[in-house]
Amino acid sequence: MPFKIIPTTEEQDLSIYAEKSKMFYPDNQYGGILTTNWSTLAVTGFYSSAVGATGAPDSDHSWFGWHLNSNIGTSYAHQILWRYGNVDQRIRYKSDGVWSAWALGPATFVGIADAGSYYTGTTVEAALQEAGVSISQLNTQLTSATNVIYVDNKRTDTYTAVGTYNLPFKTIQAAMDSITGNSSSNRFCIKIATGAVYTEALTINKDYLTLEGYGDTILSGNLTFETTALHVKFRYLKLTGNASGTYTSAFVIDVCDCNTEKNKNWVFSCSVSGAFIQVSGQSTLWYANFVLTNIKGVIANQGGYFEGTHTFNECNGEFIGFENYGGTININAGSEIYIGASMCIDTVVNLAEGATLHIDAISASKLATLNNNGGTLDLTTPSSAIHYDNTASGLAAETVKAAIDEIAATLDGLDEALEALL
Fold first, then answer.
1. Where are the extended beta strands (E) located within 194-301?
2. Angle 377-383-384 (CA atoms, 0-180°, nearest 5)?
3. Residue 319 sits in which domain range?
4. Long-range contacts of range 83-89, CB-CB < 8 Å, 24 or more positions apart?
5. How far apart are CA 141 and CA 165, in angstroms?
6. pLDDT reported for residue 39
7. Is 139 among the domain residues?
8. Burial profile 48-61: b = 16 or more Cβ within 10 angstroms, e = fewer
């Protein structure tokens, strides 16, 4: 039997369309099946919620969107929501019955969450322009970033290196030699590309300089510091060579979140007092040896691992705070060293005649051996160098002096409050 096509009227078409649309937009004022809890939905479909709905990206707006169950059950699902009156899109997923946090969707615009408002631009270009930075301005910054010089020795193509992100130098030395106009108010940073090994023997010849890697950047060559390099900082690098410097004026070298190699030597001396070397950072693994002469400050902050043989000649400074420490400390004549924080564990300390060591009793008990060869041993370490465990008290202080000062300040505040009441 042949099929017969019966034409419909426009009114009938609209009626059929309206009925089918209810699959997606049931009869309510919001559009979609109204829900008050996005987290308990168990049926795939199109939903909407009013202000204050549980499980919504926020409780201050109305939201609508899809809930999609996995084909293996309701314990796995996805939700994609849009905020009414805007193009803000959020997505999340459920795994083993647990919802993830809401994340910005791929079609969302740039928002300023802490300002309580949003950009109105619906494209990245518009949002950047609204913030006062156009795409062209951003490109200009990438190619001429002030005081940031990029290095990438993996680049094998031919170009004229100028130190920008797009046109980086291929050696650290070339980047350093290009620096001019550096000063205390005009510091430079050399950003060294990740995943690379740099075998250069570097001459550190610039002041107010930071050499910064990405954690897996390795500098395997030796480092020679010239007398002009008075303020130098290393960050997120693995330093596997020797380092040396002979200074005639005070200097500061700061090594933060860096790793060194065993059996390497960092040898520094200064003909005047005031020089300072600091090793710090939570991820610091310091295995190299120190040989320091006339250095004022030597600080090893809590959070890393310190090892090697460290020799202090006519030095005056602190050596405190590492959670794990092995190796040897030689304190020679003319030196006055403070060891505190009770964390120099399994350490051999050799105290020479004419040298002074300040160490609290707790820290001394952590040492492997303390050999006093005629030096001055002071177990009454200044309170500023004694570690304070603030776990039980809830104080922010980490030294005895700071704890006392914190308590005193609190008492002063209580006195003022009582006087105000009286």
1. 197-198, 202-204, 209-219, 223-225, 231-239, 243-247, 252-256, 259-260, 265-270, 276-280, 285-286, 289-293, 297-300
2. 105
3. 147-412
4. 83/57, 85/61, 86/118, 87/122, 88/118
5. 9
6. 93
7. no
8. bbeeebebbbeeeb
Question: Is the Cβ–Cβ distance between 83 and 56 less than 8 Å?
Answer: no
The pLDDT, as a whole number, for residue 163 is 92
- Whether residue 140 is contained in a domain is answered as no
Q: Which distant-in-sequence residues (6+ apart) come within 8 Å of 371 by Cβ?
A: 348, 349, 350, 351
Which segments in the chain show pLDDT lower than 50?
14, 17-25, 107-120, 122-125, 127-128, 130-145
Q: How many angstroms separate the CA atoms of 338 and 276, rounded?
A: 14
Strand partners, 254: 233, 278
Q: What is the largest CA-CA distance in the chain?
A: 118
Same domain, 398 and 344: yes
Domain count of the chain?
A: 2
Q: Contact at 8 Å (CB) between 375 and 353?
A: yes
pLDDT of 410? 81
d(CA 149, CA 181): 14
pTM above 0.85, yes or no: no
DSSP at 385: G
* Helix or strand (DSSP H, E) at 328: strand 327-331
Neighbours of 380 (CB within 10 A): 10
Contact by Cβ (8 Å): 190, 151: yes
